[in-house]
Amino acid sequence: MAAGRPIDHRRRAELLDAVVDYTVEYGFSEVSWRPLAAGLGVSPNTLVHRFGSKEQMLEAVLGRLRERILTDTDDLLGERPGLAAAARAAWNRTSAPQRAAEFGLFFAVYGRALQAPEQFGAFLDRVVADWLRSLVDAQGPDVDPATATRRATLVIATLRGLLLDLLATGDRERVQDAAEAFLASLPGQDRPA
């Protein structure tokens, strides 16, 4: 039995980035082999070879999207910035108008994952854990772990709720006002200029 072609991981990563960009632009419901392949200038077989099943490809898309979000936010933060600075950086990054399609995709996938947890277990396992770890770490070693976890959980839930409201209504002024009030209530918050 002949072995298949080895996977070129660099090419797969480039293709994955293109798939993520396509998915952000056209939406989660539009991701199917033929239109996606045509949009990327590859064959459907290439996508199957690189990703396996559609569900595996969507898992990879989610993973890369998550990596982009965390990397961008971490780059804004530096080391141990404090909870208030970390939350503000996360809010500024996620609520930026140019990120609306990306986070629209995030919430669409979140909804689908909740309906099919057996398919999207890895996404559900990490959707809170990554941000939680980052926000707990941002508080530093002197904060009681239970307190740090509770505060980080409130930040995640509040920012995601505000972001969902912003995406649903487009009422940036009202939502930004609420976000500022929340961010100002966090420990160690310096008021924005």
UniProtKB/TrEMBL annotation:
SUPFAM superfamilies: Homeodomain-like (SSF46689). The keyword Transcription applies. Keywords: DNA-binding, Transcription, Transcription regulation. Residues 9-69 form the HTH tetR-type domain. Residues 32-51 bind DNA. It comes from the Bacteria. Transmembrane segments: none annotated. This is TetR/AcrR family transcriptional regulator. Pfam families: TetR_N.
